[in-house]
Amino acid sequence: MRTAAILASCLVVFGCAGGEQEDIYSWMGEQAKSMRGAVRPLPEIKPFPVVAYGAASADNPFRAGRMELEKRAGGGGIRPDLDRRREPLEAFPLESLSMVGVLIQGPVSHALVRADKSLYQVKVGNYMGQNFGVVTRVSESEVTLRELVEDISGDWVERTSSLLLQERQEAGK
């Protein structure tokens, strides 16, 4: 009896499920008849006018020579000698140097200049400072320099600077 009940319930379940599937299949068939695939046509491609590139003969803005400073015809004034060998005191700004003494050996006067913790002897013709300063005069109280400074137009201009003896500089303050 038990097997008969299981068999009857299986037939009922399969019978109901089979009927529902046929309804779904028939509905899908009816819907498929009325459906049509529609692909819209692509938009028409508009031809653009051909324009000639006229900047090919113009100056290239990325050329390496364009990045250099402009050379002027009238720039024949004074200029620093960039090819000469640098002297040790040219590594220091003039403001960081201090004159601490003078040595006189015959007709030649040497100034003692302190840079950091080192002492250097300087005479007329030596260079010091970062503005191409050349020593023009050494006296007992000061060292006079002629510096070359570049102005905003690119020309080199001379200016005179001096380095006072440290004791006199402190007494004046």
Order of strands in the sheet with the most strands? 4-5-6-7
How much β-strand is present in the residues?
A: 25-35%
Q: How would you state the average pLDDT, rounded?
A: 82
Approximate shape: elongated
Class per helix and strand makeup? alpha+beta
Considering DSSP H and I runs of 4 or more, what fraction of the residues is helical? 10-25%
Radius of gyration: 48 Å
Question: Whole-Å distance between the termini?
Answer: 127 Å
Number of helices: 2
Would you count the extended β strands for me? 7
Q: Describe the largest sheet.
A: 4 strands, antiparallel
Give, in order, the helices and strands: HEEEEEEEH
Low-confidence stretches: 168-173
Structure description:
This protein is α+β, with helices and mostly antiparallel strands. The chain is built from two helices and seven strands. The strands form two sheets. Strands 4-5-6-7 form a four-stranded antiparallel beta sheet. Strands 1-2-3 form a three-stranded antiparallel beta sheet, with no helix packed on it. It is elongated.
Topology:
Elements: H1 2-34, E1 98-105, E2 108-115, E3 118-122, E4 127-128, E5 133-138, E6 142-150, E7 156-164, H2 166-172
Overview features:
173 residues; alpha+beta; 4-stranded antiparallel β-sheet
Short description:
With 173 residues, the chain is an alpha+beta fold. It has helices spanning 2-34, 166-172, and strands at residues 98-105, 108-115, 118-122, 127-128, 133-138, 142-150, 156-164.
